[in-house]
């Protein structure tokens, strides 16, 4: 039999199945495998809030989208080339995201009468048996049956055997894309090392899937995507929440501070708590508090004691932390508050992505309560951005809000990880004793940056009291004096504003310094904006892209940049939040593009929108 | 940790109560019970042998929570109800510090109730001084979670409907390892209880009856006034029978699980009485439930002293132990190894 190998530049695959089908694991394994080949990639896991939503239903569909390319990749792709559908609901939920002419790999066992009914297909209608899929290439496999056959001589319950069926699909795709399976086999060995039966069944089914492709004559073509032309260096694959964790560990190591994490479990931030809990050998103390308030206040207590205090949460939890954030502003104490945003308000859409907590970060506290805000734009960028958040917190004695979101948190991308020696220094100067001529500590005596000293318990001679009441500048004594309060409000604001002197100027991500349209983004819209802008620029269109990491304070040159274009367009996954702040700060008549559907903005949507202003 | 403090005793200069006072004007209402508590704390602190830079007093919000400003140690006057959580984080990060929480009945049992019980179950080595005045003083006189039912206050013109907390029973329920009660008007006893709280390794919950002479004057009068104190209170001493009364002629014995008052002049001797054992978990549960309203005829006397003390590993110590263990098995964390991970590829 002759087989051809086709070289592709860019592929988007979506794995979709029931939330118990192991699609997230299948997707992440294929991702790691792709990364190890040196192929560029971006991912988008999309799953229901329920751990086990009703089986077979549309609500229970869990998806994992992966785009990989020999070119640079910034988004997980607007449409899929290949859809893996483990059941009828998975097909129905994702049909509109498949490219015309794309491939659909279906598990035929997931299209029996019961599954069709649960997926709300009308009585007697089976999409595999009518011409509704005639625009696509459909590859039918009875994955369940072949999985069971591969395990026929293993003594194991049928249910247990069926759990391995995702491995069949993974093996088949490894064959289809000319991959080696070693990384998955070693992953399985690590995961199931203590359960030899499960390990054996998974590996066997994985190989069965591969061999099925190899030996069945129906499949005549395999595909290959070449290595991407990325900057030279050593890469690994990283997910957003993992990068946040590593950034915090790195900052603790470089600053010489002990890290204390106070956290309460919440989607999609919990993985940071899990990850940091695993790294005790770095001296990290993690504390799963009784609630969100204790999570932040315990971190404040630790920070008062001289630790790097960190708390991690998502929108609803951040709301509960509001009063304590105000205390940290008043105490002028370093603290990093991590918000992995999700759809809101209230419980909202816990597993979906949104950028709707920017106003909360900016204004969501009582009183005049300024706090720096830093945001990450991609999974790997979380490392650098959170490192910056720590630097600012420690060097400016202030709580800092770090914003990421569900899309970044669970997304993966290749990361050219830094060497620890190349990371910028974070200097910490605890106050060691009284200054000359000082009779007792002036806890609010400020330096040229308006920053007060960090005097920690255990230091003889520096005993002092601080608190949430308004205080006299310098002495820190309680003060209800009218002029002092105005002075302190202005001083706390000036202290945060001054940070603009200690952050880099805003750079354009792409495009020229003046022109027709400037697209200004923040956070996870980075990939879509970048892709749309570079595509338009290649067509000769006058479009530029600026992406903000520093949202409070803004870089000093941002106003000037905004005024250099005919139109400023601000795409956001919210109802218009950054745009309000930009209008307020810079009197710029910016235009919004707002998609609030719990999913990322696509490149195609943006190209169309930008086109309206060209 | 105790050894550390003891070694400090020999080198630190002897401190006095005055060393623990600050230059801040004390601003509680004249006649407030807080003055006495402050004085006793300032008296006890120099005897602990702890350098004052190693002492941190954390408070929340309320009248009692002004306390840190009047103590020349490290301190934080934080936000309502959160002192216990702040202190937990501080103690976790800095186990060598002597951490004290000063709180009130509203601060620790209402808005901060959650953090209080969790601190107790985790058994951080922190001393909680809970000033109970059965009223909200700073907000000018609303009923508190320890106010008696039917109490007429600004927010309960027809009387409070709320069933009050029994703070020590709550502490026992949260598996506190040290549970005690004292009062503002008995300086000697209060000093002794403060000392015991500090000496206990683990979370100490010390309830201090404190008179608010503005909004709830006389709430504990029967326990504190000379004329009634001896008959209404029962001072607990480890290993001693439960004897009370002006003539020391009344006692408490257990009838099954029920404490009953007996007259030592009429057919009962001390040998019949319940002998207090601080280590007895089950009897401590009965003792904290001796919480009768003193206005009801035949009521039991209110116990004061150490109800219960036990040893249990402290959170901050086990937290550190896990770190030591991780370093012991894996070696000190290597940042470059972490960032590199297990699977990498090179682009040339």
Search tags:
heterodimer; A: alpha/beta; Pyruvate-ferredoxin Oxidoreductase, domain 3; Rossmann fold; 35% helix; globular; B: Rossmann fold; eight-stranded mixed sheet; three-stranded antiparallel sheet; disordered N terminus
What's the SSE blueprint?
The complex is a heterodimer of chains A (614) and B (348).
Chain A: E1 4-8, E2 10-18, H1 23-36, E3 40-46, E4 61-69, E5 80-85, H2 88-94, E6 98-107, H3 113-118, E7 137-141, H4 143-150, H5 158-162, H6 165-176, H7 182-192, H8 196-215, E8 221-225, E9 233-239, H9 240-255, E10 259-263, H10 270-277, E11 285-288, H11 292-304, E12 308-313, H12 315-320, H13 322-331, E13 335-341, H14 358-363, E14 373-375, H15 381-396, E15 399-405, H16 406-410, E16 412-415, E17 465-467, H17 482-497, E18 508-510, E19 515-522, H18 526-538, E20 543-548, E21 550-552, H19 558-562, E22 565-572, H20 578-586, E23 591-594, H21 603-611
Helix pairs in contact in A: 1-6, 4-6, 6-8, 7-8, 9-10, 9-15, 18-21
Chain B: H1 2-11, H2 34-44, E1 55-59, E2 74-77, H3 83-93, E3 98-104, H4 105-111, H5 113-122, E4 126-132, H6 167-173, E5 178-183, H7 187-199, E6 204-209, H8 221-224, H9 226-232, E7 233-235, E8 243-244, E9 250-255, E10 258-263, H10 281-288, E11 302-309, H11 315-330, H12 335-340, E12 345-347
Account of the 3D structure:
The complex is a heterodimer of chains A (614) and B (348). The longest helix of chain A is centred in the middle third of the chain and has 20 residues. Chain A has 614 residues and is of the alpha/beta class. Chain A has a seven-stranded mixed β-sheet with strand order 11-10-12-13-15-14-21, with helices on both faces. Chain A has four domains: 222 residues, Pyruvate-ferredoxin oxidoreductase, PFOR, domain III (Pyruvate-ferredoxin Oxidoreductase, domain 3, 3-Layer(aba) Sandwich); 175 residues, Thiamin diphosphate (ThDP)-binding fold, Pyr/PP domains (Rossmann fold); 68 residues, no CATH class; 104 residues, Rossmann fold (3-Layer(aba) Sandwich). Chain A has 21 helices and 23 strands. Chain A is 35% helix and 22% strand. Chain B has 348 residues and is an alpha/beta fold. Chain B has a domain of 225 residues: Thiamin diphosphate (ThDP)-binding fold, Pyr/PP domains (Rossmann fold). In chain B, 32% of the residues lie in helices and 18% in strands. Chain B has twelve helices and twelve strands. In chain B, the strands form two sheets. An eight-stranded mixed β-sheet of chain B has the order 2-1-3-4-6-5-11-7, with helices on both faces. Chain B has a three-stranded antiparallel β-sheet with strand order 8-9-10. In chain B, helix 2 crosses helix 7 and helix 4 packs across helix 5. Chain B is globular and about 95 Å long. Chains A and B meet through helix 1, strand 9, helix 9, helix 11 and helix 13 of A and strand 1, strand 2, helix 3, helix 5 and helix 11 of B. Chain B: It comes from Lacibacter cauensis. Chain B: Pfam families: TPP_enzyme_C. Chain B: Keywords: Oxidoreductase. Chain B: One of its GO terms (biological process) is cellular respiration. Chain B: GO terms for molecular function: oxidoreductase activity, acting on the aldehyde or oxo group of donors, iron-sulfur protein as acceptor; thiamine pyrophosphate binding.
């Amino acid at each position: 039999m002759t087989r051809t190998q086709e070289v592709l530049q860019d592929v988007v695959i979506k794995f979709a199945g029931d939330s118990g089908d192991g699609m997230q694991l299948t997707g992440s394994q294929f991702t790691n495998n792709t990364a190890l080949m040196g192929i560029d990639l971006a991912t988008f896991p999309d799953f229901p809030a329920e751990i086990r939503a009703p089986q077979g239903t549309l609500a229970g569909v869990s998806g994992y989208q992966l785009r990989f390319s020999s070119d640079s990749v910034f988004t997980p792709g607007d449409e899929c080339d290949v859809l893996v559908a483990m059941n009828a609901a998975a097909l129905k939920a994702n049909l509109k995201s498949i490219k015309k002419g794309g491939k659909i790999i279906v598990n035929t066992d997931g299209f029996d009468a019961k599954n069709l009914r649960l997926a709300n297909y009308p009585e007697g209608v089976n999409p595999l048996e009518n011409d509704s899929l005639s625009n696509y290439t459909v590859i039918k496999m009875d994955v369940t049956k072949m999985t069971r056959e591969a395990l026929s001589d293993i003594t194991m319950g049928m249910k247990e055997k069926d759990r391995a069926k995702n491995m069949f699909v993974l093996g088949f795709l490894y064959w289809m894309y000319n991959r080696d399976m070693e990384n998955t086999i070693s992953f399985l060995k690590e995961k199931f090392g203590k359960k030899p039966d499960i390990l054996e069944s998974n590996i066997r089914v994985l190989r069965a899937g591969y061999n099925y492709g190899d030996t069945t004559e129906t499949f005549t073509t395999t595909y290959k995507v070449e290595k991407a032309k990325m900057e030279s260096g050593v890469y690994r694959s990283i997910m957003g929440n993992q990068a946040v964790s590593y950034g915090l560990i790195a900052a603790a190591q470089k600053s010489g501070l002990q890290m204390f994490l106070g956290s309460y479990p919440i989607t999609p931030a919990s993985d940071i708590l899990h990850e940091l809990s695993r790294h005790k050998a770095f001296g990290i103390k993690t504390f799963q508090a009784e609630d969100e308030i204790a999570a932040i206040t315990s971190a404040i207590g630790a920070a008062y004691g001289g630790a790097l205090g960190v708390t991690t949460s998502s929108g609803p939890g951040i709301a509960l932390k509001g009063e304590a954030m105000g205390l940290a502003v008043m105490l002028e104490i370093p603290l990093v508050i991590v918000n992995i945003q999700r759809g809101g308000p209230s419980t909202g859409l816990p597993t979906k992505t949104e950028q709707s907590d920017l106003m909360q970060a900016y204004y969501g506290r009582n009183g005049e309560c300024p706090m720096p805000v830093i945001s990450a734009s991609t999974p790997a960028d979380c490392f650098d951005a959170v490192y910056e958040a720590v630097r600012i917190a420690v060097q400016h004695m202030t709580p800092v809000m770090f914003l990421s979101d569900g899309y970044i948190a669970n997304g993966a991308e290749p990361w050219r990880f830094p060497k620890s020696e190349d990371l910028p220094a974070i200097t910490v100067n605890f106050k060691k004793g009284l200054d000359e001529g000082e009779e007792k500590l002036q806890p609010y005596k400020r330096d040229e940056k308006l920053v007060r000293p960090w005097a920690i318990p255990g230091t003889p001679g520096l005993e002092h009291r601080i608190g949430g009441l308004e205080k006299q500048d310098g002495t820190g004594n309680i003060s209800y004096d009218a002029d002092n309060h105005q002075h302190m409000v202005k001083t706390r604001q000036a202290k945060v504003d001054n940070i603009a002197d200690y952050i880099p100027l805003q750079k354009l991500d792409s495009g020229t310094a003046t022109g027709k349209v400037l697209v200004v983004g923040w956070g996870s819209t980075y990939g879509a904006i970048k892709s749309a802008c570079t595509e338009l620029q290649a067509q000769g269109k006058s479009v530029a892209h600026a992406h903000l990491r520093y949202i409070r304070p803004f870089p000093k040159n941002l106003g000037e940049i905004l005024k250099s274009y005919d139109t400023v367009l601000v795409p956001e996954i919210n109802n218009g939040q950054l745009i309000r702040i930009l209008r307020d700060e810079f009197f710029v008549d910016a235009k919004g593009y707002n998609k609030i559907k719990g999913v990322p903005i696509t490149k195609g949507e943006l190209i169309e929108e930008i086109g309206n202003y060209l | 940790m105790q050894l550390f403090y003891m070694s400090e005793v020999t080198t630190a200069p002897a401190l006095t109560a005055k060393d623990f006072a600050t230059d801040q004007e004390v601003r509680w209402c004249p006649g407030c019970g807080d003055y006495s508590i402050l004085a006793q704390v300032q008296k006890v602190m120099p005897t602990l042998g702890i350098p004052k830079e190693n002492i941190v007093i954390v408070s929340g919000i309320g009248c009692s929570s002004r306390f840190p400003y009047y103590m020349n140690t490290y301190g934080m006057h934080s936000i309502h109800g959160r002192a216990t959580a702040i202190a937990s984080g501080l103690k976790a990060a800095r186990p060598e510090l002597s951490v004290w929480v000063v709180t009130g009945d509203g601060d620790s049992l209402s808005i901060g109730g959650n953090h209080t019980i969790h601190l107790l179950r985790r058994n951080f080595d922190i001393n909680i001084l809970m000033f109970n005045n059965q009223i909200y003083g700073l907000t000018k006189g609303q009923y508190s979670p320890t106010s008696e039912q039917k109490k007429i206050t600004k927010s309960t013109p027809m009387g409070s409907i709320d069933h009050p907390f029994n703070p020590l029973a709550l502490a026992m329920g949260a598996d506190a390892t040290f549970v005690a009660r004292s009062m503002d008007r008995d300086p000697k006893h209060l000093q002794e209880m403060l000392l015991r709280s500090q000496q206990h390794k683990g979370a100490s919950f010390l309830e201090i009856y404190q008179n608010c002479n503005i909004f709830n004057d006389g709430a504990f009068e029967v326990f504190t006034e000379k004329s009634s104190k001896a008959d209404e209170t029962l001072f607990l001493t480890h290993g001693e029978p439960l004897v009370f009364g002006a003539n020391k002629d009344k006692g408490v014995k257990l009838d099954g699980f029920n404490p009953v008052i007996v007259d030592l002049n009429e057919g009962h001797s001390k040998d019949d009485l319940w002998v207090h054992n601080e280590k007895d978990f089950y009897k401590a549960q009965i003792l904290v439930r001796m919480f009768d309203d003193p206005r009801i005829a035949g009521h039991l006397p209110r116990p004061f002293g150490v109800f219960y003390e036990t040893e249990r590993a402290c959170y901050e110590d086990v937290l550190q132990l896990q770190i030591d263990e991780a370093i012991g098995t894996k070696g000190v964390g290597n940042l470059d190894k972490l960032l590199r991970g297990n699977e990498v590829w090179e682009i040339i």
